[in-house]
Amino acid sequence: MSPPRWFPSHRQPPSATAVSGPPPPSGPNGFWITDPAFRDRLHSATLTVLDIVEDCLNDDDVSLTEVLGGARDHVEHMLGVPSTYGVLVEAEAAAQIVQAAGLDAGSPFGLAIAQGLSGIEQLPVQQQQQLVRAAARRYAITAPSRSPAAPATAPPRPAPGRSR
């Protein structure tokens, strides 16, 4: 005969194992501006944010600045950059968009970027997307790479006395 359901059991319920997500991305090795690998991650994250902004501008209910701020909130999981550095990615993406519009971005702490973005937000969505696309292209081309390009070398010359 089995004990009644209300009778306390001496068996322990199975322990629930906590499911954790991937570990947070690592930060820079030292000061962030002197870590070339981390700067490369910031550069890559900025390009990704520009792509995300362009895609998300299709929704007429979301403004350019809201999309930029929303993308910053996801840098840790989507872009491999610690969330504390998301503001750097957002600021760089915003500056690139403002510069693509032919406006002066000034300092990331000044009002020029905010004024530029508010002016860009008044444009039709298609023009905003074109500016974001242009900013991404320009940033991909002009941003410094991690390692300088090696000088081109001439192909070896044929040995003297040989002919084909």
Structural features:
globular, mainly alpha, 164 residues
Q: Beta-sheet strand percentage?
A: under 5%
N-to-C SSE series? HHHHHH
* Shape descriptor: globular
- What summary fits the major beta sheet? none
End-to-end distance = 100 Å
List the total number of helices. 6
**Averaged pLDDT:** 78
Q: Can you tell me about this structure?
A:
- By secondary structure, the chain is mainly alpha-helical.
- It is built from six helices and no strands.
- It has helices spanning 36-56, 64-72, 75-79, 86-100, 112-120, 125-142.
- Helix 1 (36-56) crosses helix 4 (86-100), helix 1 (36-56) packs antiparallel against helix 6 (125-142) and helix 4 packs across helix 5.
- The model is unreliable at 147-155 (pLDDT under 50).
In short:
With 164 residues, this protein is mainly α. The protein is built from 6 helices and no strands.
Write the layout of secondary structure elements.
Elements: H1 36-56, H2 64-72, H3 75-79, H4 86-100, H5 112-120, H6 125-142
